[in-house]
Amino acid sequence: MCQDETRVGLKTLTGKVITASGVKPTVDVKWERENFWINGAIEPLIGKHFQQEYPKLNGDCFQPFLDWLSQQLAGAWSICKIDQAPAHTSCGINWPENIIPLLQPPHSSQLNPIERLWHFLKKPLKNELFSSLQDLRERIQQLFKQLTFEQVISISSYNFILEVLFYAASY
Q1: What is the reported pTM?
Q2: Per-residue pLDDT reduced to its tens digit, 10-37
Q3: What's the alpha-carbon Rg for the chain, to the nearest Å?
Q4: Does residue 78 fall inside a structural domain?
């Protein structure tokens, strides 16, 4: 399993806009800094995905996610690949018995398959304006509801990533 989090907020994510030749594109942009975090975990081989929203990125918010994830696994064991963010490595984190943390090397986010999922989920949000965090939450929930196991597998099951995970888990 691979875990990470992403921040989403009212500040507009901008992207390319196609226009006629010679026409300068204009896109309304919102600069508000209100945001929230989504903690997530995926299983790249089978496409299972788990996510929950939290107001901040810290150990106080990461612990409830781990406890919830442990319950979702229904007693099954999982090796969970995580980065070395302070929220994940805090001595205050009490890892559930059925989740074994596996730290990825520092500054190597490209090795975590869930990063590709965050990119995929944020793509439809480019150039969209949301009047409130609640509107954004509803849009994010809609995107997660539409997400299939096959899409998660397609996005995250690249050979080089699977080889790294297999090697790390067998080491």
Answers
A1: 0.81
A2: 876 767 777 788 887 776 766 677 889 9
A3: 18
A4: yes
